Amino acid sequence: MDPNVKAILDKAKATAVIAAERAGKMADAATKKAGDMASITKLNLQIFELNSDIDGVYKEIGQIVYQAHIGNEGRTVELDDKFAQVDERMAKIAEVKETIAHTKTTVECPGCGRECSKEDAFCSKCGHKLA
Ligand SMILES: [Zn+2]
């Protein structure tokens, strides 16, 4: 493999591990403020838009990696910024998904898998105790 490209991929791997840890912490914080939430449709749209943003940044990263591959290293410094842009949106997506999970009004029965109301203490189909 091209040494320039390998260096970039190693860097990307290291950044991804940090991003995953950070996203986990942010999701914890999001759980606490899940009280004031918009509709699930709006939240899903937000995730869609964030993913579109990420696709755009991935494309830019691809171009930078290709530039490095053909020996033009001038743009590689921009990668940190691009990775940060992806990390930021990944963390936001984790946060929004967490909010959606807490917005759901149904809970899956651990006994039979039926979607029961969060208000119910027991499953209406199999009688299993709901958490
Ligand atoms: Zn059940």
Summarize the helices and strands and which ones pair or pack:
Elements: H1 3-32, H2 40-69, H3 78-103, E1 106-108, E2 115-117
Antiparallel strand pairs: 1-2
The structure holds zinc ion.
How would you explain this protein's 3D organization?
With 131 residues, the chain is mainly alpha-helical. The protein has one domain (3-104). The chain is built from 3 helices and 2 strands; from the N terminus they run αααββ. The chain has helices at 3-32, 40-69, 78-103, and strands at residues 106-108, 115-117. A two-stranded antiparallel sheet has the order 1-2. α1 packs parallel to α3. The longest helix has 30 residues, at 3-32. Residues 32-38 have low confidence and may be disordered. Residues 109, 111-112, 114, 123, 125-126, 128 line the site of zinc ion.
What tags apply to this protein structure?
131 residues; mainly alpha; two-stranded antiparallel sheet; 2 strands; elongated; binds zinc ion
Order of helices and strands: HHHEE
How can the largest sheet be summarized?
Answer: 2 strands, antiparallel
Percent range for helical residues? 55-70%
Strand adjacency order, main sheet = 1-2
User: What portion of the residues fall into strands of 2 or more residues?
Assistant: under 5%
User: Outline, from the CA principal axes?
Assistant: elongated
Hetero groups in this structure are: zinc ion
Given as residue ranges, the uncertain stretches (5+ residues, pLDDT < 50) are 32-38
* Tally of individual helices: 3
Q: What is the number of domains?
A: 1
Instruction: Report mean pLDDT, rounded to a whole number.
Output: 82
Q: N- to C-terminal separation?
A: 51 Å
Structural class: mainly alpha
Please give the number of β-strands: 2
Gyration radius (Cα, Å) is 21 Å
